[in-house]
Amino acid sequence: MITLHFFYNMEKPICEKFQLIPVKFRKNLCQRVRDIKAKQQRKKKKKERGKYRSYSLSLKICALKWIEEGIDERTISDKLDIPLKNIRRWKKQGPFRKQGCGRKSIDLEMEQKLAAWCHETIRNTNKRVSRAMIQTQALKMIKQGVDFKASKGWTDKFVRKYKLIRNKRISKS
Q1: Which domain holds residue 16?
Q2: Transmembrane ranges (predicted)?
Q3: Going by C-beta distance under 8 Å and a sequence separation of 6 or more, which residues neighbour residue 120?
Q4: What's residue 81's pLDDT?
C-alpha cells in the first residue's frame, strides 16, 4: 500500500501540479523538478546577452605579447577580463580589423564629391559648413531612385570619416 503525504513548502512550492506525492517517489520527483527548473534558468541566462565590448588595439597587442612571452591564454583572459575566444581569434588572425568590414556607403562617388565641396566651401568662404548645409547638398548630389536620407547619424559619420571638424576653420593656404 502506498501512503500519501502532503508536501508543503511555505516559501515557494517546488511543484504546483503535485499536491499529494507518494513517499516512494517524493525524493526522485523533487529532484527532477529542481533539475528542470535549473535547466530553464540556464536557458534563460544563455538568451540574455550583455553589451558588445570593444577592445583597444594596444590592449590586443599587449595580450599577444604576453602570449609570446609564454603566459597561458586562460591566465591572460582572467587578468584582462577578456573572453578566451577573443584572445584565440587575435592570436590566429592578428589584432587588426579585417579589411572591408562594416556597412558599405550607398554612393561612394557622391560622398567624395560632397567632401571635396565641403573643403572647397570652407577654403573659399573661410566659414564653417553646417551639418544642415551638408545634408541639403548631399540630397542634391544623390542619384535619382536611390533611397537615401541624410539623417543626423549619417551626417555625424560623414563628418568623422572625412575629418570635417566643426569647431576649427581651415584657412586659405
Answers
A1: 4-47
A2: none
A3: none
A4: 85
Count of domains in the chain? 3
d(CA 158, CA 114): 10
Q: Are residues 130 and 154 in the same domain?
A: yes
pLDDT digits (tens, 9 = 90+) for 14-29: 444 444 544 445 555 5
Is the separation of the CB atoms in 56 and 94 below 8 Å? Answer: no
* CATH assignment of the domain containing 122: 1.10.10
CB atoms within 10 A of CB 76: 18
Task: Provide the grid cell at 121.
Answer: 566651401
DSSP class of 20? E
Task: Give the residue from 68, 62, 57, 95 showing the smallest Cα distance to 80.
Answer: 62
